[in-house]
Automatic annotation (TrEMBL):
Residues 521-616 are annotated as: Disordered. Gene3D superfamilies: Ribonuclease Inhibitor. It comes from Pseudomassariella vexata. Residues 521-530 have a biased composition (Gly residues). InterPro entries: LRR_dom_sf. This is F-box domain-containing protein.
Amino acid sequence: MGAAHNAVRGDYNGWGGYGKGGFAPWLELPTPLLQRVFAFVCPHSQDESYETCEQSAIEDSCMLCDLRDLAHAGMVCGRWRKTAVKIMYHSIRIDAVHYCEREIYLSEKRKRRSRFDRNGIPEDTASARLHLLCRTLRDDPTRLGALVKYLKTPYMLRESNTSELARTIAVLPNLRYVDLPEGLFMDDSGYGTLRLEVEARCHNLRKMTYMGGSERSLEALTMGTVWPNLEVLELSKINIDPTILRHVLAVLQHLRALKVTESKVIDDDIFKNNDMLPAFPALEELILKGTPRVTAGGLAAYLSRPDTRQSLKVLSLIETGVQPQALQTVMAGASKLEALSIVEQVNSAFNSHSSPIQPLANPSLKTLRYEITASDTANPYTGMTQGYYTYLAQSLFGGGFPSLTALYVRDQNFPDLLLGLPPPMPGYGGNMNRPSSSSSMGMFSMGSNGGLGPNSTGGGANPWFSSNNPFATPRHYGASGNGLGPSMLALNQTLEVFTKGEDDLDWGIVKMDPYDSPGYAGGRGVGGSGRHARSGSTTSITRPLSSYGLADTGAGWREGPGGARKSVMVGNGAGGFLAVPNEGAGGPRRGSTGQTDEWPRPRSSGGPKAERDLWR
């Protein structure tokens, strides 16, 4: 027994490094491998996004505790300390509180108590942490200050403590992104000192915002001495001459993303070629919001250039002059487009009889946000938007999006069109036929020459939907026209359809898997009939986000207090579909008192972490 104990103790001393002449192999790890290990200990230290402190927070993680663990790892030996310091000071974020149970204990200790005030006044921890960081960086600006490239601070801290923030920025020459107060973007005189520090010290800044009132500072970029390495530029309510803006953009040789919000001076001419002006830069991400003078013609002229056609990956059109009928002219020119958003309020029904309209198609598109809603002045009983979603469904059946994985629509009945189900009849309508211009019937009644619907028969109306008699025997068409059921979309991968009605809290998700076919060995079907099925475990869901912190592709699709509705479509073996409850739908949600929601929160295919990332 004693010999065994001595053997174990000798082995521990030999490998643990605590005995004489001990050898610890983990102390001899290569520096790149050690950096990767430390990156897993403190994940937020690798955050290189151009998003604010609030938007870049890591869920289900306490950033302060992770930073503490990394600091403790740096105290093991001198070699680990050198590696840990480089990781800690690469991307710094200051959080006001711990995102764990430790905050309950620490908040009580921080209170300034007295004999007459037992509750105490809580300490401003964010300001204290910024003060300590500023002191540390200014004590060793050559070694520590040069390591900092990203600095993120909470909103209230950067708005109220500008002097401390300016003193910190003054010793950060390699800074690429920093959270700045909004007054600085509007040339507010109260933030003049901070602006001078940023302009003088931070030559490598990569993102900047200009709001209404800062036109003079924006024009100063033409000199090429202020932030020449900008990659992301955001303009909000800017009133500037378009020709001057063309010169400003031409100076920024590294510009990759541009966002223009609420501008009446930006029109199609800024995108068109002009021999007297420099060309509009080739961007990877272009976001236009509240620019009614920009139409599909101007964007088509911009995408006619070979360099822009190959570079543009993200395009967002929110309340612009681009109409859904002319969207295909824009999509046809963007051969590398991966994410597209169009958000419009329409005053008239979809006009498909005036001229031939090409279906939407793009081979590289992965995420499509198609939110067409009726304006406040439109008649709510005309079903004005149905024609627009019918047009989208026709394009999907036509196979124009072979790479599409996520679709966002503002129509709760849109998944029924994709599943081949008839549109729901209104309870007050009786046997009255819905108008063809405002319903989805047109998708299934087009001929083979121009029809993209699933059941085109060469000219006449679809026999399946030719009668509103609920007792009529439907005629089914399989995926290959074999009469087994309604034909389905030819999907290459799982398609996630996010739906939302008029109420922002009433929204959900329908996931459609590729059907079983000889050419697809991994598809999921129901009864071998080639129908799409709701999958419970497939590829992980990724929330559509901008790589430059600008795009709002998923904006408005957040979790509400009422949860979200998940639709489950399963075949019943007789050519129809059966609605079944979700697995685990009866369990209470986290934080509840045992009561279940009427519509449980849907589970992501990527697990709990991916679910919270999408539905937060």
